[in-house]
Amino acid sequence: MAELRTEEEQVQAIKDWWKNNGSSLLIGIGAALAIVFGWQAWQNHQAQQRAEAANQFAN
């Protein structure tokens, strides 16, 4: 990429990049957060199920 010479060109390049890639970036971040929180919820669910099964087995 050619070196940008002025601050205005740099700002415009960032605006253009955001216009082209902003929605994809936000969707990616949202998907990553959903995966992380979903995984944590699944792990908590499994731990709760194991604890209940162990409790039933012990009694």
The class by helix and strand makeup works out as: mainly alpha
Poorly predicted runs of 5 or more residues: none
Radius of gyration, in angstroms, nearest whole number: 24 Å
Total beta strand runs = 0
The portion of residues assigned to helices is over 70%
Number of continuous helical runs: 1
Question: Strand count, sense and closure of the main sheet?
Answer: none
The run of helices and strands is: H
Determine the mean pLDDT. 94
Q: Tell me the strand percentage band.
A: under 5%
Morphology call:
rod-shaped
Distance between the termini: 69 Å
Describe this structure in words.
It is a single-pass membrane protein. The protein is mainly alpha-helical. It is built from one helix and no strands. The model has no long low-confidence stretch (mean pLDDT 94).
Question: What are the defining features of this structure?
Answer:
single chain; 59 residues; mainly alpha; 1 helix; 88% helix
What topology emerges from the helices and strands here?
Layout: H1 7-58
Pfam families: TPR_21 (PF09976)
Protein name: Ancillary SecYEG translocon subunit/Cell division coordinator CpoB TPR domain-containing protein
GO molecular function: protein-containing complex binding
